[in-house]
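Narrative summary of target 7.
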Amino acid sequence: MQILSEMRRTHNCGELRRANAGQKVILKGWVAGWRNHGGIYFVDLRDRYGITQVVFDERLGENFDLISQVRNEYVLVVQGEVSDRGENINKKIPTGEIEVYALAFEILTRSEATPFPIEDEVNANEVTRLQYRYLDLRRKPLQDIMVLRHKVNQIARNYLSDNGFLEIETPYLNKSTPEGARDYLVPSRVQPGNFYALPQSPQIFKQILMVAGFDRYFQIVRCFRDEDLRQDRQPEFTQIDIELSFPDEEMIYEIVEGLLVKVWKETKGMNIPHPFPRITWTESMARFGVDNPDMRYGLELCTLNEIMAGCAFKAFASVVEAGGLVKAFSVPDPDKTLSRSFIEKELDPFVKVYGAKGLAWARTGAEGWQSSIAKFFDADTQKRINELAGANAEDSVIFFVASENPRIVNGALGNLRKKIAAKMGLVKDNDYKFVWVTEFPLFEYSEEAKRWASAHHPFTQPRPEHMDMLQSDPGKVLARAYDIVLNGNEIGGGSIRIHSSEMQQKVFRALGIGDEEAREKFGFLLDALQFGAPPHGGLAFGMDRLIMLLACTQSIRDVIAFPKTTSASCLMSNAPSRVDNAQLKELGLKLEKI
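Modeled conformation, tokenized:
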């Protein structure tokens, strides 16, 4: 006779329905809950597909006594018969039309008491959940996210394959480059003193694949970046990476939008309007203060330099005189949600994080502004500012920031705009607004390094009309670069690449990378560009951030099976960890105290 534990399950715990009544079945799963009702036990048996209620009674015979030992998270195999529950349906679960009467069962594995219950909502802190990540992943919300992630992977693969893209793997072990965030370094055992770098992106290799004639490439690829982490950043992350030859921006927009429309349709049943709107980087900074604007609401910024020039409020007038910037935006607030206390205790410190000296504000009303700065502006000027800021004359709050550094003004107000939208309930789940942001600056000046640095990466093509300014005025050079932004989050970015070796060297020189250094770091790319490189370009999606938005969760750690903390640690495995001296010696390494 075959042992029950060795028999294959006939069904999972989420698929039985009324049509299965009378069938003999074998189920395997975890005990999600159990109840003793006067000698009859009811067990909720769970696997990743769902939950089935199993009834244990005298039909078990001498095996019945064993059921009293069962506790939550024990792993069971149950042989039983499906029974129709009639009108006694449990509408909370898909299998609620039936229950299974156990004819035999075995305990496959016993479980210690778990540090937190395996339920949809738990009060356990994140440290505990990450330490016992394998238990956290048993919870349905996280399992649903992992299923969603799988679906998106498959949709992307099928869509890109159907559009002529080839999935090609690029190396994980490569050489370090001088651009971008810090590399993760891997020592070479066979070449002591030399190091590989883990890729921050497959950028150079995918460009070389274009030179090689593979005119449409994609890869769902792991990338690594050794930088300080935030809520939406991880040291290792996943990209949907694409590149194609002979494109223009319109071709790339069309391909990307087609993929996103398909993802939303097949995962959420939503029809996303397209083509997506487009704005330039300059317009985005002027209207929203940031290059990743949230388009779900208004609250647009306005520039007030003309009004503030020579005004009685010296804090603003002096900024304009020094060539700085004064901007504002307004918020309808008929319920007085934005109290003076809230503004002073939360919003004023918030803008200071972005370098602002403080936050000025005024509440509109029938008698004019209520504000400490109201006395500096007559009624006509207040009316003009109300109109420019889009403020209702009766019940709005206007927020002002001024600085000689326009970046501070835009950063402070652009991020304050997002914070207030959340506070005022303007941000809602399942409301998705995409926008393309285009024509980014090619360079940004690094005060720390005292030189120009790539705003994106050094392989981005300048706009044709700006080629002549590479050496003379690099700060005015715009790039053929573009980001796809969703609800205030950049979910993908790319560019048309440089396909001329001569042009690539000019960009390197503008970045302060001399010919010798360029040859040492990027010689293989410069060589490849001399052998008939086609025009090419592409884009990479941040898969983790994309799934986070699809799943309507606030933490990127929720969408990664085994995430790191903000200190780049894995609380489950205790990585990173020390290695013994024998390993260091074999690699030719010696540790020194810093």
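The first strand starts at residue 24 and ends at 37.
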